[in-house]
Task: inverse folding
């Protein structure tokens, strides 16, 4: 006989703490490893080391080939959506003109019936049809109201009368967006950047496949834990401390002595720390709670604060 234990006790009228934990109750925490974090020198699209890196005004880094292909694909998609929207507008215009034509025809028909309703409109000597238009005992004339009802009848079992949901194509925006920050992005807003590689030969031999970069001012190795700043005028990358201490005050690059202003200092977006949330993204996305007596784990979105 197996012994009763608090973790395996399932004959109570309430959930124990261990049973709640098994159902996902409470805050879920998970420490991410290094393989789950994007390095600061990796492309946001291909997630590979940067080749001819370009940076947007929000600090997202891309390979030149990757971002050009992305912007070109967005332009093709915008062109396709504009064509579909133009076709839809033309169809809506044609349908509106057809409705107006039918409305005018109905108004003329009603006016004609009102003015000539007392005069019989048939000349049948055999008198096989009466005034209501019946052709005989077994024939029935379908009125205009019945025709309209038959035309608008929704029948899921008839292919010709199956209702269709109209797919409306919204007018697309003509601006290309950044694939990472979702803000408006143009090709001329991108600027090339250049990292300063470490000149130590021993580090190069030990890391033949990985290239390490340093700040050209303080010679500190750049990692994901540091805040990096890129100069949009020349493209050199510095750490945040050197940028605030020298670039923001001297208003000139320390490498090429090129003039730069405060608006030219772009903070590079990092790949993240060892936690799932970092910087300004510390916000819960979902939580689980247990219904009273139901025994079911329900999911609800967390309320934004």
Result:
């Amino acid at each position: 006989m197996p012994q009763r234990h608090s973790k395996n006790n399932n004959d109570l009228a309430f959930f124990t703490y261990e049973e709640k934990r098994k159902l996902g109750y409470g805050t879920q925490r998970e420490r991410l490893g290094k393989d789950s974090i994007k390095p600061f020198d990796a492309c946001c699209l291909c997630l590979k080391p940067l080749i001819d890196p370009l940076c947007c005004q929000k600090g997202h880094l891309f390979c030149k080939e990757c971002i050009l292909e992305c912007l070109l694909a967005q332009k093709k998609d915008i062109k396709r959506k504009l064509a579909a929207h133009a076709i839809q507008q033309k169809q809506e215009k044609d349908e509106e003109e057809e409705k107006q034509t039918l409305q005018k025809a109905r108004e003329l028909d009603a006016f004609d019936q009102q003015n000539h309703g007392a005069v019989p409109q048939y000349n049948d000597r055999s008198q096989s049809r009466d005034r209501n238009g019946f052709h005989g005992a077994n024939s029935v004339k379908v009125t205009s109201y019945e025709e309209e009802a038959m035309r608008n009848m929704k029948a899921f079992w008839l292919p010709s009368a199956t209702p269709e949901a109209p797919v409306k194509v919204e007018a697309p925006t003509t601006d290309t967006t950044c694939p990472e920050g979702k803000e408006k992005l143009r090709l001329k807003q991108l600027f090339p950047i250049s990292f300063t590689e470490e000149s130590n030969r021993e580090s190069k031999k030990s890391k033949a496949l990985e290239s390490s970069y340093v700040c050209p001012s303080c010679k500190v190795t750049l990692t994901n834990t540091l805040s990096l700043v890129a100069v949009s005028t020349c493209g050199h990358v510095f750490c945040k401390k050197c940028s605030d201490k020298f670039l923001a005050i001297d208003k000139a690059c320390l490498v090429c002595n090129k003039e730069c202003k405060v608006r030219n200092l772009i903070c590079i977006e990092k790949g993240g720390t060892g936690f799932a949330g970092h910087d300004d993204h510390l916000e819960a996305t979902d939580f689980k709670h247990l219904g009273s007596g139901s025994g079911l784990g329900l999911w609800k979105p967390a309320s934004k604060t």
